[in-house]
Amino acid sequence: MRSQTADDLPSEATTVRMRRARRTIQPRRTGVTTMSDLERDPDTGAARSEGDADDRTDRAVEDAVLEVEDLEKRFGGIVAVDGASFAVERGSITGLIGPNGAGKSTTFNCIAGVHRPDSGRVAFDGEEITGDEPHQVANRGLVRTFQIARELPEMTVLENMMLAPKGQRGESLWRSVLPYFRDEVLDQERELRERAWETLEFFEIDHLAEEYAKNLSGGQRKLLELARALQTDPEMLMLDEPMAGVNPTLEKKLLEHIHQLREQGYSFLIVEHDMDVIMNNCERVIVMHQGAVLDRGSPAEIKANEQVIEAYLGGEV
Ligand SMILES: Nc1ncnc2c1ncn2[C@@H]1O[C@H](COP(=O)(O)OP(=O)(O)OP(=O)(O)O)[C@@H](O)[C@H]1O
């Protein structure tokens, strides 16, 4: 491990601050359909019935940060997502569960812009993001982590944290060579570095800042993955199996961090196979089966649904 320099010293803040003002995103193109438009009958302009609304998203969700409607994604002859509709309450920890092959990861990928859905719509913060590129989705404040952490092994933890978020000012050649802009770039780098230290402190991995990422344990990599996601200043995080390969002590810590972040206003959508994690930590659960949403509700409601139990027992579980 390399030793810390004075410049590297962490700032006084020990928690990840909510620096972002709540984004008030306006429709970006004229003619774009927003989810509120979708609440209306296209011919009459009248609001659709409650029953319709229930089929599409979720009546119980009053302030949706994410809305998915009739999402469909095929790979050749395989229908991976088959008309999935749901909503995620702002500021909630929501679980997305289902047996193997239910379409959870594909749904994540369609939301995050990794896959372009064949049909259906995705809206974030009330604005349609269907078909946006991953960096556009991330720039709006919706980021995802992967089942297998994607840090760069030959870089240190701090360097991984400092990897420039897209559209950063330093990316322009002119900006980096002209004196005025150089100062601006340096300021921005200082800010990024400070934020990186704060986030590493928050996750209690600041002592690993100078360690190469390849030397971290599986659980520490998961923490780094989450820390990196927070570097982009998101509003919502989608976590794909955050507890896979994490030991019970670290799992407890990771869950504590997720709850602390939720208290600060972040929203979470979590795919996780560990049912205890889902049932004990999520206030709402969405169940997928064969590409569609089978049920959604509180953990108690989901546990009591026989169809859900059957879906699991009929699968590989
Ligand atoms: N890139 C792809 N090409 C072809 N088929 C795919 C691809 N990605 C997913 N599938 C198929 O789509 C279906 C849904 O897969 P997906 O990975 O979304 O399910 P999942 O619910 O995340 O499963 P698991 O819990 O096992 O990770 C599966 O039948 C899978 O084989």
Write the layout of secondary structure elements.
Layout: H1 35-38, H2 50-56, E1 64-75, E2 78-89, E3 93-97, H3 104-112, E4 119-124, E5 127-128, H4 134-140, E6 142-144, H5 157-162, H6 173-177, H7 179-202, H8 218-231, E7 236-240, H9 248-263, E8 267-271, H10 275-281, E9 284-289, E10 292-297, H11 299-303, H12 306-314
Parallel strand pairs: 3-8, 3-9, 6-7, 7-8
Antiparallel strand pairs: 1-2, 1-4, 4-5, 9-10
Helix pairs in contact: 7-8
Adenosine-5'-triphosphate binds at residues 75, 78, 80, 98, 100-106.
Question: What key phrases describe this protein's structure?
Answer:
Rossmann fold; 10 strands; globular; alpha/beta; 36% helix; 317 residues; binds adenosine-5'-triphosphate
